[in-house]
Write a structure and sequence with these properties.
Elements (H helix, E strand, L loop, with lengths): L6 E10 L2 E10 L4 H7 L2 H4 L10 E3 L2 E2 L11 E4 L7 H10 L11
Parallel strand pairs: 1-5
Antiparallel strand pairs: 1-2, 3-4, 3-5
């Protein structure tokens, strides 16, 4: 007789400025990160987000779609950056400042 796979608890999270969604899911052991995103009601809550194509990560680290989840994992759905970080740093340096610190006078 084959062992029965347990279900695990995971979260799928998505945020926009001023609002975030966190979906608690109970999924079968062996579920991948992309499968969890597809199982969450993200597409219904945010119709402009394509759950099958958005970049994803776990606890701030990008992961491939096929990454198998562990109990307690938080799958994060990433949105495009408003501004390229490299370009922002270069612009700050060109103005004589740095990001995150005001320029001393």
């Amino acid at each position: 007789m084959a062992p029965v796979a347990e279900d695990i608890d995971v979260e799928v999270a998505y945020a926009r400025p001023g609002r975030q969604w966190v979906f608690a899911l109970r999924v079968p052991a062996g579920t991948t990160a992309r499968q969890a995103v597809l199982a969450a009601p993200l597409g219904r809550e945010c119709p402009d987000v394509d759950p099958a194509a958005v970049p994803i990560g776990i606890f701030g680290e990008r992961v491939p779609d096929e990454r198998v989840l562990r109990a307690g994992d938080r799958v994060e759905v990433y949105r495009p950056l408003a501004r390229d970080p490299r370009a922002a740093r270069q612009a700050a340096v060109a103005q004589g400042g740095t990001l995150g610190r005001p320029r001393s006078r």
